[in-house]
Amino acid sequence: MIMAKQTAKGQGRVFLVVVDETEEMRAALRFASLRAKSTGGKVALLYVIEPTEFTHWVAVEDLSQEENRERAEEVMQDLSAEVNEWAGELPVLFLREGTRDECVLELIEEEPDISILVLGAATGTKGPGPLVSALTGRLVSKLRVPVTIVPGNLSDEQIIAIT
User: Fold this and answer.
1) Using the 8-state DSSP alphabet, how is residue 1 labeled?
2) Can you tell me the distance from the alpha carbon of 104 to that of 49, in angstroms, rounded to the nearest whole number?
3) SS3 at position 121
4) Sign of the Cα pseudo-torsion (112, 116, 120, 125, in order)
5) What is the pLDDT of residues 70-125, one digit of tens each?
6) Those residues with Cβ within 8 angstroms of residue 123's Cβ, 6 or more apart along the chain or in another chain
7) Domain range annotation of the chain
């Protein structure tokens, strides 16, 4: 379900970053922003509100979803300012409800200008993270764009050096 959407049409190369509140997402965001700036591209941010588990109490579920939407809007506003600072331009914003992997695949299919998916990889012992694992494993054949995986432990200086 689309909740809020801007268009990415006509933006040139569009770097899609899936928003969450992890350190590795910040590395991916910085990388995508600097690559967009150096190539004349644009950053797109996707925030996915995942389903709540309060299916028996509709009022509680509605309240939880409203709180999740408000939190998503706050996060997107903060990250938009960061992207604007790094890339010199505001990002395209997408807000969806569903599972992250399904929403990523759907958005990439719907927005032909999205040309690169940029993901941050966790550096802990549990692996790169569920989204990276899914989109580079069982779902990789469903992607129509390349995936750039940014190690979450890269410093700003390292990211600047490679962009």
Assistant:
1) -
2) 12
3) strand
4) positive
5) 999 999 999 999 999 999 999 999 999 999 999 999 999 999 999 999 999 998 88
6) 24, 151, 152, 153
7) 2-162
State phi, psi for 128 to the nearest 5 degrees.
Answer: -75, -10
**In the 8-state DSSP scheme, what is residue 140?**
G
Q: 31-52: per-residue pLDDT in tens?
A: 999 999 999 999 999 999 988 7
What are 148's strand-pairing partners?
118
| H-assigned helices in 11-163 | 23-39, 58-87, 100-110, 130-136, 156-162
pTM, two decimal places: 0.86
In whole angstroms, give the CA distance from residue 125 to residue 2.
Answer: 35
- 2-162 — its CATH code? 3.40.50.620
Helix, strand, coil % in the chain, rounded to nearest 5: 45, 25, 30
* 145-160: burial string, b at 16+ Cβ within 10 Å, e else: beebbbbbebeeeebe
Q: Rounded distance, CA 88 to CA 118, Å?
A: 18
